[in-house]
Structures are given as C-alpha cells and as structure tokens.
Amino acid sequence: MFSLRKLFTLAVVLYTPALGLNNGLGKTPAMGWNSYNAFSCGTTEAQYRANAQALVDLGLDELGYQYLNLDCGWQGSNRNSTGGFTTNSATIPSGIPALSDFVHGLGLKFGLYSDGGYFACGGNTGQFLGSLEHETEDAVSFANWGADYLKYDNCFAVSPTDTVDYNPPFDDHMAAMRDALAATGKPILFSVCEWGVQDPARWPGTNFGNSWRMSNDIADSWDHVFRIINQVVPITQFAGPGGFNDLDLLEVGNNGLTLAEQQTHFAFWAAVKSPLFISTDLTKISPEALSILQNRDVIALNQDGLGQSIRFRRRYTNAYDVWSGPLSDGSTVAVVFNLQDTTRDITFSYSDVGLTSAVVSNVITHSSSGGRTTSYQATLEGHGVLVLRMSDGTPSSPPEFTFYEAADPANTLNGGASTRVVNSTVTVVGFIGNGGTLTINGVDGGTEGGTKLVSFDYINGDFTYFNTDCSNCRNAFVSVNGGSAVQVQMPISGQSWDILFSGYLVSLSGFKPGTSNTIRISNPSAFAPDFFRVGVEN
Ligand SMILES: *[C@@H]1O[C@H](CO)[C@@H](O)[C@H](O)[C@H]1NC(C)=O
Ligand SMILES: *[C@@H]1O[C@H](CO)[C@@H](O)[C@H](O)[C@H]1NC(C)=O
C-alpha cells in the first residue's frame, strides 16, 4: 500500500549523509599494524609477534597504533569435521588463541582477516578458507579467539574458481558478516575490503562497515599513491565517525617511495581520515621513516573528533594540489603537495581554501607563523607536502561567475563532440578530445578582460584500478580566444557517468573586454571529461 511514511523514510535514506556503522566502534579511524605490505600472505607467527612487540617497544601503541592485524595466509585450507574455521599451522604454529593472548598481553588489540567469498585472496582455489555461507559460525569463532577487528576481503565472491568478479553481491556478503559479528555481542571493528569496485562509499546508509576500501591495492610507488588520491576526490563527504574511506595500508618504511613521498602519503591519509595501518617490518624500520609515523600533530589530524575528511580544493596542473577540511576546534587543515618529482617553491594562497588570512602552524616542522598571514611560501621536495593548521581564519567572499552551459546552441561542437542528457535533468557535452572539440562562444570578458578565474562543472566517470598516465583523472586542454592551450587535469567526479563535479577552478589569461571571447576545450590524444557548464568570473 502506498504510504507517505515510506516515502519519507526513503527520502531520508537517500539524502542523509554518512552515518557509519552504528556499533560504537571506529568513531575515529582505526590505527595499528597489518602485515600485508611487508610480508604479503606469507607472514609467520614469529613476524607477527616481533611486530606486536615493536609497536610497544617503539612507543607506537601510545601514539594510537593499537591494533595488531593479521592479513591473508593465517587460514587453513579446509574446515574441520564440524565445519569450523581452521588455522594454517605452518604459519601460525601456536594457533590463533595463543597469538591473540600474546597480543592482548602487550596491551594491544587483535585483528583477524577473512573473506566474503568461497576462498580468500592471496591463494589459489582451495588454498585459504573464506567465510561465505559460514558467516555466523565464523563470527563466533573469531569472537571466541579474541578478535577486536575483522578485515573482510572479497576474492572468489561468486565462484570458487574466479578470483575477482567486478559485480558480485558484495553488499549482501558484507551485510551477512556485519550482522553475524554484531550477533556475537563482542565489539569487533568491521573493515570492508571490496577494493572500491562497487563504490561502497555510496552504499545506502554507508553502514556496512566502520571503514571501506575505496580503491584497488596500494603498492610501493608514487603512481599508486596518486591513483588513490584521485579516486577519493568524489567521496570525501562520506567519511565520518563510525565509517571512513579506507585508502589502504601504509607504505611508510618500505623501499619504493622517497621520504618526502612517504611524508605526503602519511599526511594525506591522516587528513583524509583513512585508517592508518603501518605495514612495514618494524624490526627494521629506519629512524627517518619511524619519525614520520610518530608525528603526533599529524596523528591528531587523523584522530580529530569531528571525523571530517579534507576535500579537493584546487589542482594547479603539473604544479601542486590544495586540499582542506574542518577540525573540531574550528580550525582548518590545509594539505598542499608538489605534483612534480623535483623540488620546487610554492606560494600557497589561503584564498584557495576560502580564507583571506589566518594564523597558521606548520604541522610537519612544528613552526608557527606568529601573526596573521595571507599566504605561505614553502620549498617542497619532489611530491613533498606542506600541512598547515589554520586558526582564526577570515572567510573570503566567494567569487561570482557568469555561467555558460556547454550544450547551449550558441556553442560550437566539432569532430564528434556531442550532447548527452543525464538523469533527464542535465545536458552535458561529451566526446571532447581525440578530435572532438567544444567551443563556448560569446563569453563576457567584462570591461577589462585579462586573467580570470574559470569554474568547470564536469562529469568524469573514467575510474580505474590500475596505474595509467592519468589514473582516475582526465586532461582537458583549454584555450581562450585561440591562444595556447592550458592543460587542466581533472580527477574523476564519481565511479559512474552521472555524478557532477562542480566548481573546478582554473585561472586563465587572454580574455578581451566585451562579449566576443571564446573558450575552446580539446585534447589531442585522449578524451576529456564531459562538460556541463563553464563559469567565468565577473
Ligand atoms: C571445529 O572448529 C570449531 C571452530 O574453531 C571448533 O569450535 C570446534 O571445536 C572444531 N571441531 C572439531 C571437531 O575440532
Ligand atoms: C543522477 O542520479 C544519480 C543517482 O540518483 C545521482 O547520484 C547523480 O548525482 C545525479 N546526477 C545529476 C547530474 O543530477
């Protein structure tokens, strides 16, 4: 029967932002150690014990790194005679209860790993048990073994022989284990690991887990870090107490990133409110990498009680990125990082985060500006980072734009560029690039012309699990009045072709006074995003 109340409930479900999983856990992102980036699926019990001990000996536990988490490889291949979960005695000779006791005895929390499919990741068919159709009894076993955390992967989700399926019933699988854990009565933080294949940040209610992996695995190079950073752009608003975007385990301390890149990776993960899991062999970590992980001020960004992520503010293509977000004390954190692999000077203007001036302190170097400033000069190493805590900020008045819709008949579409209607509400122009061009005609340059802030509303659903020239981004080349084209790199706006990014800002020169200006968008060798409208500052 039609019910207004149902309609209302539906509206609330659709329009309520992130709530997270309401199990009382994960109000701030989880922190700890996980074996995978150090030892893959071959971690031995001795290595787990040594790294648990190191968390304590290095004082990392007191900084918040509380969980010692197992990853793939601890599980047996077959269930026992009564269908129970078993342990791989070659890797964990003392068994899970003994290892769990050891970890708890150090004052740490203990995390287990399983999989929502027939078998787990990291092995062949039949190698490592999964929990599909055994969720209830496995949750009881994990609880009995003292698990405080469960990372739940998704290999072999639809078939015992197919490792990765891109459209499995992930939500059902995740909900089954979530509910089974809740039924045990033991508080167990639930970490959903479906690699972002079905955009879990947008699952209704976002209450499937205390965190959800939003991308394919990280690996130990900057390309991986940048791929994941681009992929989180459209979902930062879904992070909140009880449910966070998980950008994957840390690579700090491993060999593939420079120290500057490790610093950027750590600071970004912290400020975006990702869980922070050290994943290097702590018995061999260098003092420099250790000090990155020990920075209390960076950790404080991650553990801030407001639980809000930084969001993408501005990309100066091939130069630097600007991200910022609110903190519980009313201050703003800004994260600015060098997109080039060589050292450069940057001047970060506070207007890029909506402030005319503020009192700032440098979170990495622990230095303060003293008085009120309007910009900050920094020399950043290749892919290096500037992190500022900005207090007492004066908001700037937002710029005003005149908007030109891409599909307006006054514009010129050439070489295959064509219009597309989205949700029967918005018309965009797609197939720009590879010969297709969009020229916006009749743009008002005001009485002065010159350099103007230009705002783009676009759709880019070209997301990827792999590293490409522009992973999770597309390039547009924008030319004013036929002048030289400026490269503008635009991250994805979502994982489907119907989600807009509004207000991507670029400063462009070459405007003339009056209303006869043109803005031409192209890309000689790839496709650009689809454009909805372009705003030119009045
Ligand atoms: C099978 O495994 C379960 C879970 O670990 C355990 O409770 C049960 O006692 C085991 N059964 C046998 C026969 O070993
Ligand atoms: C189209 O609908 C989808 C699904 O409701 C929504 O996420 C998206 O924001 C909509 N896009 C536009 C441009 O309105």
Summarize this structure as a short list of keywords or feature phrases.
glycosidase, binds 2-acetamido-2-deoxy-beta-D-glucopyranose, globular, single chain, 10 helices, Alpha-galactosidase, 538 residues, six-stranded antiparallel sheet, EC 3.2.1.22, alpha/beta, disordered N terminus, signal, Glyco_hydro_27, eight-stranded parallel sheet, 19% helix
Task: Give a description of the structure.
- There is one protein chain.
- The protein is of the alpha/beta class.
- It is 19% helix and 30% strand.
- It contains ten helices and 27 strands.
- The chain has helices at 4-15, 36-39, 45-57, 96-105, 135-144, 170-184, 222-232, 259-271, 287-293, 296-302; strands at residues 31-34, 67-69, 109-115, 149-153, 189-192, 211-213, 244-246, 276-278, 311-316, 320-326, 332-338, 344-349, 355-362, 368-373, 375-380, 385-395, 401-405, 412-414, 418-422, 426-430, 437-443, 450-459, 473-480, 486-491, 501-511, 517-522, 530-537.
- It has an eight-stranded parallel sheet. Strands 9-10-11-16-13-14 form a six-stranded antiparallel sheet.
- α5 (135-144) packs across α6, α8 runs parallel beside α9 and α8 packs parallel to α10 (296-302).
- It is globular.
- It binds 2-acetamido-2-deoxy-beta-D-glucopyranose (NAG) (2 copies).
- One 2-acetamido-2-deoxy-beta-D-glucopyranose is lined by residues 422-423, 425-426, 498-500.
- It is an enzyme of class 3 (hydrolase).
- This is Alpha-galactosidase.
- Its EC number is 3.2.1.22.
- It comes from Marasmiellus scandens.
